[in-house]
Amino acid sequence: MKLLLVEDDSDYAATLSRALEAMGHDVVVARDGVAAIEFNDRDQFDAIILDRMLPQMDGTTLVERLRERGQTLPVLMLSALGQSIDKVDGLKAGADDYVVKPTSVGEIDARLHALVRARGWKGEGATTLRAGAILVNPGKHRAWYGDDALDLSNLEFKLLAELTRHAGSFVTRTMLLERVWGYDFEPATNIIEVQIRALRRKLTASGSPDPIVTKRGVGYMLEA
Question: What are the chain's domains?
Answer without folding.
Answer: 2-123 (3.40.50.2300), 129-222 (1.10.10.10)
